[in-house]
Amino acid sequence: MKKTRLIKIILKRTGALKFLTTYIIIFAGVSIGVWIVEPNIKTPIDSVWYCFSVATTIGFGDITAVTILGRAMSIFLSICSILIIAVVPGIITSYYIAVSYTHLRAH
């Protein structure tokens, strides 16, 4: 529980929490949008499953986007997912390095 609290503090201090919150909103919005426009996706759960497979770049293939709008939303979600996976760990790592460096210089 202590590590979870530490990560939450780091995410707040570095501003990465805003990135993650925005990403969650984008994920939910794309999930709803895909559910509305795609004829192959019948339930909201199927839409979340599809978006999860797109976001993680796994692409199981059991559900696919067939409309242009659904494919465009999938591309957008893929790009956002790749960026969030690249940016947030970098922010956290930079924070740890800066804190460690400051701590070492103080002693």
Low-confidence stretches: none
Structural class: mainly alpha
What is the count of DSSP helices, taking H or I runs of 4+ residues? Answer: 4
Distance from first to last alpha carbon: 29 Å
Mean pLDDT figure = 90
Total strand count, please?
A: 0
Order of helices and strands: HHHH
Cα-atom Rg, whole angstroms? 18 Å
The largest sheet, given as strand count, sense and whether it forms a barrel, is:
none
Portion in strands: under 5%
- Give the overall form: elongated
The percentage helix is over 70%
Structure description:
With 107 residues, this protein is mainly α. The protein contains 4 helices and no strands. It has helices spanning 2-14, 16-37, 44-55, 68-106. The longest helix is centred in the last third of the chain and has 39 residues, at 68-106. The two termini are 29 Å apart.
What features would you highlight for this structure?
single chain; 107 residues; mainly alpha; 4 helices
What does the secondary structure layout of this molecule look like, with pairings?
Blueprint: H1 2-14, H2 16-37, H3 44-55, H4 68-106
Helix pairs in contact: 2-3, 2-4
Task: Offer a quick outline of the entry.
With 107 residues, the chain is mostly helical. It contains four helices and no strands.
